[in-house]
């Protein structure tokens, strides 16, 4: 029932074909690049603020080069939230919606796979000074390689409900992967208290890079003691990592700033 | 409680297969409750495709997979810088490294860092068939 609260869409057909054509064009000229693995030595990089600014600069230039032209033509940028289940994607989506629309988007739960369908909030306008940025926010179920209904049973669900949830969750993951092609910008939301160097994270980021989709990595849950952003920076040295607490709205201005930089 | 079965797949065994063929082959072994050690790796699209197919096949018995990929970074980075473009990668890149695919009912976690990979299995108690 909580899902009814938000506007959900499954109509993903529109615009998909045109987009596909454009994407494959881009892919043709960009040699495939791996995300983190090619530069192990860079993991010792410090993240002092000047290094950070430089990094942002590099990202900005890269993005302008690769996709700058798309945004000038495009009216509706799709900003996707990806990551493993429970990283805080929906919490972040709600935070963004509350900050800019005054209403939330979807239900959040400590039990994994609360979000089992793609959800879109259209037309979010964020402003900073004279700058304005408009996008459609896409909250995804996230990506997992395993789903065990018995985990839901352990959380107190009855078997039938748990099995139904597991079934929906598998479809959710499939949809999230299918929708990768549709994204213009992706924020990868990672729980900063967990080991970031997982194959799921690497696969997500690798697939985005292969599709020339700009990536911003968010280390969420920095309010928790076990949070460790350095570990994420070390795992993905060539990406910008922003630490936030989606739940408590910590560092959101920094995230918005980065979005402006990415889409500018 | 039988021991773990590892099945090694040389790259040559998947080289000629289509993406779908590769995925089906690897998943079939994982579904037989064996751990796959694949010489080399899939490309990124295939990795995503593997996850998709895994999701399609999940049922009461099969709970999905744990996946881990490692490869020698320096060698590859240097090599790819010399020979630019996707073609070199196609020829050489995917042959390097090692892919581990284990059924989630047996493999709890694959932990990796740039230099090593650790595979954690579930306790035998948890791997036995569901009881009534
Ligand atoms: N402490 C803390 N908990 C968070 C934060 N963001 C999300 N959570 C919690 O993490 C769990 C999963 O959040 P959710 O947004 O549903 O994750 P999703 O599966 O990625 O959409 C929920 O219990 C949230 O309350 C955060 O910034 N700090
Ligand atoms: Mg969610």
Describe the protein.
The complex is a heterodimer of chains A (264) and B (132). Chain A is built from 8 helices and 6 strands. Chain A is of the alpha/beta class. Chain A has a single domain, classed as 3-Layer(aba) Sandwich (Rossmann fold). Chain A has a 6-stranded mixed β-sheet, with helices on both faces. In chain A, helix 2 packs across helix 8. Residues 1-47 of chain A have low confidence and may be disordered. With 132 residues, chain B is α+β, with helices and mostly antiparallel strands. In chain B, the strands form 2 sheets. Chain B has a 4-stranded mixed β-sheet with strand order 1-2-4-3. A two-stranded antiparallel ribbon of chain B has the order 5-6. In chain B, strand 5 (107-112) and strand 6 (117-121) form a beta hairpin. The longest helix of chain B has 14 residues, at 44-57. Chain B starts with 5 loop residues before the first strand and ends in a 5-residue tail after the last helix. Bound molecules: guanosine-5'-diphosphate and magnesium ion. Magnesium ion (MG) is lined by residues 89-90, 114-115 of chain A. Magnesium ion binds next to helix 3 of chain A.
Oligomer: heterodimer
The separation of the N and C termini of chain A measures 38 Å
The distinct bound ligands, ions and cofactors come out as:
guanosine-5'-diphosphate, magnesium ion
- Gyration radius of chain B, in Å: 16 Å
Q: Going across the biggest sheet of chain A, name each strand in turn.
A: 2-3-1-4-5-6
CATH superfamily of chain A: P-loop containing nucleotide triphosphate hydrolases
């Amino acid at each position: 029932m909580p899902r009814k609260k938000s506007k959900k869409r499954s109509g993903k057909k529109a615009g998909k074909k045109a987009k596909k054509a454009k994407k494959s064009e881009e892919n043709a000229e960009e040699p495939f690049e791996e995300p983190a693995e090619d530069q192990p030595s860079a993991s010792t990089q410090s993240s002092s603020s000047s290094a950070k600014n430089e990094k942002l600069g590099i990202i900005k230039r890269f993005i302008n080069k690769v996709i700058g032209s798309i945004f000038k033509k495009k009216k509706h940028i799709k900003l996707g939230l990806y990551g493993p289940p429970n990283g805080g994607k929906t919490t972040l989506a709600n935070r963004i919606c509350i900050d800019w629309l005054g209403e939330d988007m979807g239900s959040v739960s400590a039990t994994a796979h609360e979000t089992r369908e793609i959800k879109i909030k259209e037309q979010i306008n964020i402003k900073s000074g004279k700058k304005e940025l408009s996008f459609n926010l896409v909250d995804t179920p996230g990506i997992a390689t395993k789903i065990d209904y018995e985990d839901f049973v352990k959380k107190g669900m009855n078997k039938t409900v748990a099995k139904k949830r597991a079934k929906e969750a598998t479809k959710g993951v499939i949809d999230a992967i299918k929708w990768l092609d549709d994204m213009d910008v992706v924020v990868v939301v990672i729980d900063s208290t967990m080991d970031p160097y997982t194959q799921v994270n690497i696969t997500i980021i690798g697939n985005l890079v292969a599709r020339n989709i700009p990536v911003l990595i968010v280390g969420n849950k920095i309010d928790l003691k076990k949070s460790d952003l350095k570990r994420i920076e070390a795992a993905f040295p060539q990406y910008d990592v922003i630490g936030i607490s989606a739940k408590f709205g910590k560092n959101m201005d920094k995230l918005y700033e980065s979005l402006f930089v990415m889409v500018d | 409680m039988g021991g773990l079965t590892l099945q090694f797949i040389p790259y040559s065994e998947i080289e000629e297969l289509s993406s779908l063929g590769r995925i089906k082959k690897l998943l079939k072994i994982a579904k037989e409750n064996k751990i796959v050690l694949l010489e080399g790796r899939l490309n990124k699209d295939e990795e995503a495709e593997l996850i998709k197919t895994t999701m399609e096949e999940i049922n009461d018995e099969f709970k999905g997979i744990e996946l881990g990929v490692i490869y020698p970074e320096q060698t590859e980075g240097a090599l790819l810088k010399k020979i630019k473009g996707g073609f070199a990668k196609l020829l050489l890149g995917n042959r390097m490294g090692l892919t581990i695919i284990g059924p989630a009912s047996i493999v709890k976690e694959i932990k990796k860092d740039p230099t090593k990979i650790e595979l954690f299995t579930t306790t035998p108690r948890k791997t036995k068939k569901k009881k009534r």
